[in-house]
Structures are given as C-alpha cells and as structure tokens.
Design brief:
Elements (H helix, E strand, L loop, with lengths): L3 E10 L5 H9 L6 E5 L5 E6 L8 H16 L8 E5 L5 H6 L6 H11 L6 E4 L5 H14 L5 E8 L3 H9 L20 E2 L1 E8 L6 E10 L9 H15 L8 E3 L6 H14 L5 E3 L2 H4 L6 H15 L27 E8 L3 E9 L1
Parallel strand pairs: 3-7, 4-5, 4-6, 10-11, 10-12
Antiparallel strand pairs: 1-8, 1-9, 2-3, 6-8, 9-13, 12-13
Length: about 350
C-alpha cells in the first residue's frame, strides 16, 4: 500500500481565520466566548465559539471561508483529486435564511463549485465523527492507488437547528467547557471550517498510519466504554502499533459529565500507562462534524511550533486521567479521537517523521 501524508492544512475557527492566527490566540490564552441566543420555546442564551468573520448571507460567508481554508491547505494544486466533504449540518443555516433548500446533493455540488473541483466528490455525515471518518475513507482510497491526492474538508457553521437540538437535550453548558473538569456541566458548541490535504506522492512531516470507527448504538447520544476500548484497539491494529508506542492522545473531552467519564474509563482500560492527553474543546468549542479535521490541523501545528492550550478548570481527580499542561518532549505517534451521536467512536493515528 502507498503511504499517505498530511501535506497541507487550513483552519478557520473561533481562535482565528487561519492556522497561524489560531496558534497566536492559543499562546495568549485563547479568546473570549460569545453568546448565542435562541428564540421561541427553546429560548435562552448559551456560550458559543464563533468564527471571527462577519455574519450576513450564509452562503456567501460559507463560500468565503471554504475558499480561504482550502487555499491555505494548498487545494488549488489537487483539484482533480478526491474531495471529501464532512459535515453534520450541511447548509441548514442557509435554509433557515431562505437562501438554500434542504438538498444534500445540491450542497455538495455547491461546495465543489466554490473550489472549481473537477475530481470525484464524496459527502460524509456520521455526526461528530464525520471528518475523522472522511480521513479514514480518503486514506483507504490513496493506499489503494485510486487517487494520488485528496482533500478532507470539514464544514460546520452556525444554525439554530443544531443549537436548539443540543439545548433541548440539555447538553449545553451555561458557562464554559471544562474538559475532564471537576465541575463540568456540558458542551460549548462552535464553528469551524478545516481542510486537510492528503498525498500519496508528496512526503511530508506527518504520515497517516491508520484509523478505526466503531459504532455502538446502545447509547444514541453518548459514548460506550467498551466501544472506546475497541476503537483504540482497532486503530492500533490498523496502524501496526502497540499501546505503549502512542506518545500523545487528542481526546474528545468536551466537558460532558457522562461522556468524559466514559472516555476516561476507556483510556484506563486500553492503555496500561496513559500517554499525555490534550483537548481543544475549551479553546475552540465542539465543532461537531468538522472537529476531527479542525483539531488535527491545530494539534499538528501546535507540536511543530510550540503552542499548547491552557485549561482553567480544575481536573476531576476521580476520573484517573489528566490533561497535559504542556507538550511532551518527544512526540512521534499521535492518536486523535472524536466521539459522536449515533454511537460513533472514531480514531486515527499519525506518525511524525
């Protein structure tokens, strides 16, 4: 099988409109949380991590962000490659404005048109694990030699339906995200557009070794400890690694009282010695279908350039795991995890040259 490299990345999130701006904000301790107000019966104001880009016409804003992020990743070089669009909300924000219709095929065509894409286009929607599953699918295609290049594009932009749904399920924090925190009380949602350019012919600092997606629908809105363990084991097997070869895990740790505890339990069962752990949810919010790509873009840049998130919340000592206050001295193998609705548990493993 051909090796697959992470040859380019782009990111727009609450921290900034590109990778370097996001790193700069992270070094300064992050950015202030905005508020999102919901009308009607689900009315209320919730913390929200919005991209610092003026709101107006939803489609125009989405187009500008997609083009910006794809260009940062070097997508203009590979427009005949495979495009994987990963999202859980598509363009529902445009539907709410009356500027789009509920037509997923139309959405993918619209995004491909924004990028003047000539290669095959695929849409992945597995809720929060969408962009990690897109990475796994893209790697399989490149390994097999079906294409030489691929772009994984995670898109998650503001809309009332998503906020209202999470509010109705009482999953949102009234204040802040506290990953693995003692007083964690829910999620803080956010926006992100992220692009990861994969190549089978352009060697780069990071190589994608493998990944796994495990579905356990017994808890449709929560994680399963058994599935978390199975996900880790399958991702390690797909990558040809043992548990003790993982140097750093980018955990989900979104601040959910239940899911954080389940994830911690899975870590303790799967790893005899817990590697260093990092979470970006407190800094950029939970960006749902875009979160895997967005957090990998930010994490790899952090490791290369010496930035690291700060955690204000006190750790929950009962969990038995703790987030690292600084980057490990040596990081060769990174495991990145996202847990999502529908019982989807996904991880990928990257190796640094």
């Amino acid at each position: 099988m051909k090796p697959v490299y992470l040859a380019g990345r782009g990111l727009a999130c609450a921290l900034g409109l590109d990778v370097q701006a996001s790193l700069a904000a992270l070094r300064q301790g992050g950015v202030a949380t905005s508020r999102y107000s919901l009308p009607g019966a689900l009315g209320g104001s919730f913390p929200y991590r919005a991209i610092p880009c003026p709101r107006g016409d939803w489609n125009e804003r989405a187009r500008d962000l997609v083009r910006r992020v794809a260009a940062e990743a070097g997508a203009q070089q590979i427009r005949s490659g495979a495009l994987f669009i990963a999202t859980s909300s598509f363009d529902i924000g445009g539907v709410e404005q009356g500027t789009a219709q509920m037509d997923y095929t139309s959405f993918s065509g619209k995004v491909a048109g924004w990028l003047e894409w000539s290669g095959p286009v695929y849409v992945i929607n597995t809720a929060c694990t969408s962009s990690l599953n897109a990475l796994i699918a893209a790697q399989a295609m490149l390994n097999a030699g079906e294409v030489q290049d691929a772009l994984v594009l995670g898109i998650e932009l503001d809309n009332q339906l998503t906020m209202g749904g999470f509010a109705a399920l009482q999953l949102l924090s009234p204040g802040s995200s506290k990953p693995f925190g003692a007083n964690r009380d829910g999620l803080v949602l956010g926006e992100a557009v992220a692009a990861l350019r994969l190549s089978a012919h352009d060697p780069a600092q990071w190589q994608m070794l493998g990944g796994a997606n495990v579905v356990d629908g017994s808890q449709p809105t929560g994680a399963s400890a058994a599935a978390v363990v199975s996900m880790y084991q399958r991702a390690l097997a797909a990558s040809g690694l043992a548990a003790n070869e993982i140097d750093l895990i980018k955990v989900q740790a979104a601040g959910s009282p239940g899911n954080d505890a389940v994830e911690a339990q899975g870590l303790l069962e799967a790893f005899p010695k817990i590697p260093s752990l990092v979470s970006f949810k407190a800094a950029m919010g939970h960006t749902l279908g875009a979160s895997g790509a967005a957090e990998i873009a930010l994490l790899t840049a952090c490791l290369e350039q010496g930035a690291w998130p700060k955690y204000e919340a006190a750790a929950d000592t009962e969990l038995g795991v703790v987030l690292a206050a600084s980057a490990p001295d040596r990081v060769r193998h990174v495991l990145a995890t996202i847990l999502g609705f529908g019982g989807s548990h996904a991880s990928v493993i990257l190796e640094r040259a």
